[in-house]
Amino acid sequence: MLKDFENMQHSQWEKWKRARSLVDNPARETVGFIEGPPTMNGESAYFLSINRNKKSIVINLKSEEGREIINKLIERSDIIVENFRPGVPEKLGISYDDARRIRPDIIYSSISGFGYNGSFRDRSGFDLSVMAFSGLMSITGEPGGRPVKFGVPIVDIVTGMFAAISILAALRYRDITGKGQFIDTAMIDSAVQILTHQATYYFATGRNPERTGSAHASIAPYQAFRTRDGYIVVTAGTQKIWENLCKAIGMQDLIADERFRTNEARVKNRNELESLLEGYFTKRNTDDLYKILTEFGVPCSPVNSIGQALESEEVSSRNMVVELTSRLYGTIKTLGTPLKMDKSPGRIYRAPPALGEDTMEIIRELGYSGNKIKELLDKKIIMSSI
């Protein structure tokens, strides 16, 4: 992680320097909004969630000596990833053109709100604003209600995924041609891309898709239903599953009912169907419904809390919760990886670093030593939290 520390709040930096002596301060269980960012052993849970398996060096990018360090890193790097606004890397001397003069086959991935061309190129992009601009937010929420954001920063996440896919493709291209390239990944492009069938609905009809809550716009029943003690999701995606659902709940007469005989009819009469099914579900517990529907081959799930999901046997058996030990934070829990390949599986092996935790290690690997390192530290060209 490269950080221009002139943009860093002094209090933040002091916090990281003190990390080793902090006492445990686990995040409190809360309901709804929280009073402040939750922490785990003194560090931001948000920071810990996205910085596993990384090393961290802090360099003053606005200094000539800092750029010399960056250039040494570029010499030995295959890929550069940055997410400044277009134009900022050029001012700092770390643009694609700067990098490829040092290493011609470099793969340079730029991630920004609105990309390197287009009328919005100079605007900052944040997950919520891009979600709103792209139309995603207009289809999220309950019918007739306010638009709502996703529970996670979905645009940030998918933009990073599209960037990673592009990088992998660029690496393969370099394997074949020996050439590197510039990758321009924009949050707005990524958000528009995941509109998928909702965009095609608009192209086909000229009408804007509307918010449908948990329900599917063109399949019924395919939504969350209230139960006696919670909610359960039922996904009757085929006619056979619909018929199995009717048998599971003892309402076989609905199979031949003209209002519900086909999916088209069920979508047309969605409100009547929802009322009938919820009348049954609200008299029964979620676990009992889950058991009987599963026995009849109906895809379904209780609407779990985050804690219920993370503590479930299914998630545990897939090694999606792991423990890591850090000299700064102690033992912390974090998410596993979905990259499960039989020859080269992904693994979570390193706790998130504090900013600058690996500065000394990396700077020595670049050939710096002794008085030169002391000089760089004294002049605040680099910073180390160790």
Report on this structure:
Strands 4-5-6 form a 3-stranded parallel β-sheet. A 3-stranded antiparallel β-sheet has the order 7-8-9, covered by helices on one side. The protein has a domain at 222-303: formyl-coa transferase, domain 3 (2-Layer Sandwich). It is elongated. The model is unreliable at 1-31 (pLDDT under 50). By secondary structure, it is an alpha+beta fold. The protein is 40% helix and 13% strand. Strand 1 and strand 2 form a beta hairpin.
List the helices and strands and how they pair.
Layout: H1 10-17, E1 39-40, E2 43-44, H2 45-50, E3 58-59, H3 64-75, E4 79-82, H4 88-92, H5 96-102, E5 107-112, H6 127-134, H7 154-177, E6 181-186, H8 187-193, H9 196-205, E7 222-226, E8 231-235, H10 239-248, H11 253-256, H12 263-268, H13 270-281, H14 286-295, E9 300-302, H15 306-310, H16 313-317, E10 321-326, E11 330-335, H17 359-365, H18 370-378, E12 382-383
Parallel strand pairs: 4-5, 5-6
Antiparallel strand pairs: 1-2, 3-12, 7-8, 8-9, 10-11
Helix pairs in contact: 6-8, 7-8
Supply the CATH architecture of one domain. Answer: 2-Layer Sandwich
Radius of gyration: 26 Å
What is the N-to-C succession of helices and strands?
HEEHEHEHHEHHEHHEEHHHHHEHHEEHHE
Taken as a percent bin, the fraction of beta residues is: 5-15%
| CATH level 4 superfamily of one domain | formyl-coa transferase, domain 3
Tell me about the biggest sheet? Answer: 3 strands, parallel
Largest sheet, spatial ordering of strands: 4-5-6
List unreliable stretches of 5+ residues: 1-31
